[in-house]
Structure formats: C-alpha cells, structure tokens
Amino acid sequence: MALIKATIAAASMSALFHRSSRPFRVPVTLSPRRTLCMGSGCPHDVKYSASFLYPNRRPSFGLSVTDLTDSDWCEKQKEFSLVDRSRKTSAAMKTGDGGQEEVIKRYRIRSAEDSWAIKFTNSIIHANELLVHGLTRELTIVGFTEGAWIVGRIDEVRLLKMKSEYFLMIVEKKTRRRATLPTEPQRRKGRFQVMCYKKLMDISAEFPSEKFYDHLALNPEHILSPNIVKKTVKSGFPCETLRDLVECFRTTCSLLPPTHDKLLLRYELQGNLSLLLEKQFPYDPEWVTGKIKYHLEFLSGKREAACTPVEERWKCNFCRFSSKCPAYSDSPEQTGH
C-alpha cells in the first residue's frame, strides 16, 4: 500500500516539475484501440499519470515495484486503472496523498531532483539504522534493471550473522482483513515483490550515476532545498547537490552485506497482527528477471495488456473494472462452465 501511495503521489507531482510553462500533453499509445493523454484540455484527462508507459519519453520518476506487481496480478486491471478518469480514491489513499503533501511542504520540494533527494536521504538514513541496530523498516531502494529505473520500498530488512558472515534478510509483511490463508496467486505476487526487492538490493552498490542523470533528465549539480540540506547535515552526511547525495548513497550501499538467498513473507491478521502464515522461499533470479521483462513490454507500450488466465478469473469478482473488461464475460463464473 505504501508503494501505491508513492506511485500516485509521484505521478501527480510530475506535472508540477515539468519545466515547460505551456500545457503538457503527451499522447501515449496503450494499444491499437486505446490512447491516453495527459494534461489540461485532454479529452481523456485522468488522475493517474501514465507517462512511464510512453517508451520514447523520459519520465522523472521511473517505475515502482508496485507497477510490476500490479501488472503481474492483472495487466488489464492495471491498464484500466491508468486510463479510467473516474478512479475512486480510498480513505487510505487520501491519507497517503496528505502525507506526501506534508513532505512537499516540509522540505519545500520544487523539482524532480529534490523529490529524488528525499528518496536517497531516507534510504541512507535507514541503511545506517540497519548497520547500527540490525533492523530497519520502509527502506527505499533504487536501481536500473532490464532497461528501466525502478523504485521499491522494502517493508523490513534484518541484519543476520551466520557463523562468521553477515547477511541481509528481506521481509515483507502482508495484512489480511479475515483470518484466511492467501491464495496461490496472492502468494506468487508476494514472492515476485520480494524478489524484485532483492534484485534491486543486489545491484545497488553499482549504481550507474551518470545513466541515472541522463535517463531521467536530472541535473546532478542541482542545489538541494535548504530543508533537505539541513536533514542531511543533521543525519551525519552533509550534502549540497544531488550528485553529493547520490555518491553518498552509492558509498552507503557498498557497505551493506549481501542479501540472503532465502526471502521471507509474513501474513498477519489486520488489527491484532497475529500471525496467519510465515513462508520462507529461495530467490530465483531467472524467474524474477523473466517476469520483469515480460511486464515491462506492457508498461513500455510494446504490447497490449494481457488478461488474467482463465483459471484465475475469480479475481474479476473483486475488480471494479470487471463490467467493461472482455475477460469477465468469458470467465467460468459468468459462462457457468
């Protein structure tokens, strides 16, 4: 949920950070039948920016792990969520938007560079906390993989000592409203999410700084907002420019021990947080890389969105776009087969 908040907030900020004073309007081809426009005056004006779907544009915020896991759940649902202009905002999302607005005001964010600076600052702070205390939560990680910049926020990272070596254990906690075990598709989505985190962690020490600035059209010599500078000074790593902060991020990541090949998913009951299921599983680099590549084809506009498999179309019963989705009318629940 935290990543969804971050994605929505970042998308809404992209128009603010665009350097042109003229209305911003970019046609994005989603499929031969769908075109998404962004900006004032667009007939398909939407609340959710889908600029990252445009393969020839350099969005200043990249993708999130949530974009990938949402696509893995159902690409068609993801597509509908991007083009639907009547998207409903839940109370949780409203709280998230308010929190993002508070961050913007507190640090006086006026540019994409400052927005990235906040991510790097928080990442360094949490990484230092991990090294000192052996545990951190909400660790932001950024990486370039399979031709895309991806941001993730890891729920929990633990520092473990095994014999004479140290490792990082990545943990993802999921809460459920009812005391029921997750279905296999839900567990698969969770495994994909945690493996994405490990993949980003494993490449963090080799962060390609120049590619980062160029690919996202960022100014490395940008002077950070005064409040961000104060935050870095107070946290023990004084930085004045985005380049200073990125180099500090690279150095910090190089100090972290390697991540363990065993990953952990925990499912807890909402409210009292009692444990429903704890599942440890091995990292599968080929599996996660294949999934990332597959979904990036859709997210980059190279192919149409795929509907969820027939055997998993029970998901349609919980999708608010089911009434206009071609897969729903063909699902076993609707045909009676």
Automatic annotation (TrEMBL):
Keywords: Exonuclease, Hydrolase, Nuclease. The keyword Kinase does not apply. It comes from the Eukaryota. The keyword Hydrolase applies. One of its GO terms (molecular function) is single-stranded DNA 5'-3' DNA exonuclease activity. InterPro entries: EXOV (IPR019190), PDDEXK-like_dom_sf (IPR011604). Belongs to the EXO5 family. This is Exonuclease V, chloroplastic.
